[in-house]
Amino acid sequence: MPGFEIFGNEERKEVEDVLDTGTLFRYGFDQARKGHWKAKTFEAELAKRIGADYCYLCSSGTSALSIALASCGVGAGDEVIVPPFTFIATIEAVLNAGCVPVFAEIDETLCLDPEAVKAVITPRTKAVLPVHMCGAMARINEIKDICDKKGLVLIEDACQAIGASLDGRYLGTFGQMSCFSFDPVKTITCGEGGAVVTNNKDLYATACAYADHGHDHTGNDRGLEGHLILGANFRISELNAAVGLAQLRKLDSILEKQRSHKKAIKEALVETGSTKISFRKILDEKGDSATFLSFFLPDKSVARKVAKDFGLAGVDSCFYWYDNNWHYVRQWDHLKKLKSAAKLPIKLFEQTPDYKKIDLPQSDQIISRTISMLIKLSWTEEELARRIEKIAGIISAL
After folding, report:
1. Is residue 186 flagged as an active site residue?
2. Which of 186, 250, 257, 376 is catalytic?
């Protein structure tokens, strides 16, 4: 991770196909495009790859979340249960849909704790939006069971977990809809891109229309297409889709290399014999996409020290999320103040949570002890060995 580490002739060939036709728009221009349909091909191959019936490729993971919420009828005034550990886009999509984000605790999977989900359900709860954070799975079967029993919509944020699975079933195929991201630093990238996936034909039709100003995409004359609904512009270009198509075809080799590199580092840490390090709970080690190695230290002070020592030793791409501005609720001052260029509908609702007073002691206790190490594709054997030597030395010295 990320896919840009292995750009090559495959991506160039797909992009040149598009440039040779002059057709960058994903719809229409059938004769000019000379049979090249990069977005449609990507959608078909991704759906087949993960065992889903339908896939729609869009402009970003954030737009995928917006499309999924709208398609599932989640909107103004609805409460959506979310984790405090995610990229802020998850929360922004909920707010921009006119919904109320309700935070529940995470557990040592670094994802939503099912028992905590139960504890925050109210009569206004419409959906649960678990995030398969850092490439591995939430307790998605337990969360799905809760949603089924309570009649709640389940939308998976699998933006960081392409190719990951649980007991042989791919993440992104458990909910009514799921979302993926293909931004510049994801496992596979379109440059900018995302996708929504579903097994429901009607939800797919709604998603396709909503993402393209409500167009029904019938016939071959765009000017005569009908408009099913009001929508937005969340389309992807054929250029972005072309890059992603080549990347998607490399996914198996990407996962193989990530898993190999992660295994080597984890084994070295175990071999140190240190009692001061433990590892994130992975429900299915074989299904882990291995984009990160996440581990716990005894307390906040030790975790901060180790993160600092890694930096001083030149061990890059290690994240101490507790102090990170993007991925943990503790530092989201713009959310706590509901500071936005737009007038958010949430301000009109009664019983809106006071985000300045978010109290998630279990999550704080977990994240304050967590360091996540990005697993790169481009490490040579020598670079990996040097990295392991430095990491093991720092952990052994605790």
Report:
1. yes
2. 186
